[in-house]
Write a structure and sequence with these properties.
By secondary structure, the chain is an alpha+beta fold. It has one domain. InterPro entries: Rossmann-like_a/b/a_fold, UspA.
């Protein structure tokens, strides 16, 4: 039925529940279903003061999320 499920996550409880649901759905299908987790960050607004975004921290946060930890 589904070959690929995309799950955007942002660290919120709602996105964690969505990821859990996607995993349960993939297991229920008993098929070769791939889950892609997309870690999203809040948008940067141009008229706000400059925000220094550290890509290393973003990557670390995403990896921690995938491993089940929190950052």
């Amino acid at each position: 039925m589904y070959k690929h499920i995309l799950v955007p996550v942002d660290g919120s409880q709602q996105s964690e529940k969505a990821l859990e649901h996607a995993v349960r759905l993939a297991e229920a299908l008993q098929a070769d279903t791939q889950i892609t987790v997309l870690h999203v960050t809040p948008p940067i607004v141009l008229n706000e003061p400059e925000i220094n975004v550290d890509r290393t921290d973003c990557r670390r946060s995403g990896q921690s999320y995938l491993q089940g930890g929190s950052s």
